[in-house]
Amino acid sequence: MMVNSATLPRIPLDKWANSFVDYMIDSFSGVFTGINQIMTSLISSLEWALTASPPLVTVVVFVLLALWLTDWKIAVFTCFGLLLISLNLWEASMLTLSLVLASTIISLLFGVPLGILSHRFNKIGAVIKPILDIMQTMPAFVYLIPSVLLFGLGNVTALIATFIFAMPPAVRLTLLGLQQVPQTTLEAAEAFGATEWQKLIKVQLPLALPMIMSGVNQVIMLSLSMVVISSMVGAGGLGAEVLRSISMLDVGLGFIGGIAVVIIAVILDRLTHLSTQKRKGIQSSK
User: Exposed e or buried b for every residue in 42-78, given b needs 16+ CB within 10 A?
Assistant: First the structure.
C-alpha cells in the first residue's frame, strides 16, 4: 500500500529558521553592527601587518619563522613559494592569509575554553558534542546564507562563516588531549597539594598541548578552504581571483590562484604540524 506524501504532516523547519533569523536581525541589529566593526578592524590590522613592509621583508620573516619552528627544508620551500606568490597575487594572498589568521584566532579563543569546559563538566560536554556534530556535517555553503543576512556581503561575512565552520576541531581535540592525560599524573599533582586551577595550567594543558596544536592545524586548514569558498559572498583574496577565473573561463588565472592557495596551505600545515613534532622531540629528550 502506497502512502500519499501529501497526507503526511510537514514540519515547517524552513519557516522556523527564517523566523529565527528575522528575529535576530530585528532584535540584535546593533550587536551585529558592533561585531562587524570589530571584525573589520581585526582583518584590517592583520592585513596591514602583512602588507606594511615590502614583500621581500615579509618573505624573510616567514623564512626565519619556518627555520625556528621546523627545519631548513620547509624554510627553503617557504622562501621559493612566497617569492612565486609575490610575483603574481601578493595582495590577494595576504588578504586570504589575514582572513585565515583572524578565523584561527577567534576559533581558538572560543574552541579551547569550550573544550576545557566540556572536559570539566559532563553536562556541558553532553550539550556541546551534538552541536559540534551538526557544525561539522552541515554543508559549508549553508553557513554563508545567514551570515549574509546578518552581516551583509564582504570579508566579515566570510570571517564569521569560516569561524563557525572551522571551530569544531579546536573543541574536540582540546577535549581529547585533556582526556588523554594520565590519571596517575593528576593524582601525583593532587598529592603535592595542587589546586584544580594549578592542575589545569601546569599539568593538563602542557600535556595536552600536542593534541591542541593538532587542533590548530585542522582549524587553519578548514579556515583556508572556507575562505576560498566565501568569495561567493563578496570576500576578497585568492577566492575572488578563482571565482573571477571561473566567470571569465580563464584557465591561467585559475591555475595561478589555485597554486597560491596550495602554497599557503602547505606552508601553514608544515609550520603547525612539524613544529608540534619538534616540540614532542624536545620534551621526550628531556
Answer: bbeebbeebbeeebeebbeebbebbeebbeeebbebb
For the CA atoms of the chain, what is the radius of gyration? 22
Q: 30-285: which CATH architecture?
A: Orthogonal Bundle (1.10)
pLDDT per position as a tens digit, 143-195: 888 888 888 888 888 888 888 888 999 999 999 999 998 888 888 888 888 88
Contacts of 237 (CB under 8 A, 6+ apart): 92, 93, 95, 96, 99, 227, 228, 231
Instruction: Assign 236 to helix, strand or coil.
Output: coil
> Hey, what's the cell of 155?
570579508
Q: Judge whether 207 and 76 are in contact, CB under 8 Å.
A: no
Instruction: Check: pTM over 0.90? Answer yes or no.
Output: no
Render pLDDT for 79-96 as a digit per residue (tens, 0 to 9): 999 998 888 889 999 999
Report CA 278 to chain centroid distance, whole Å: 22
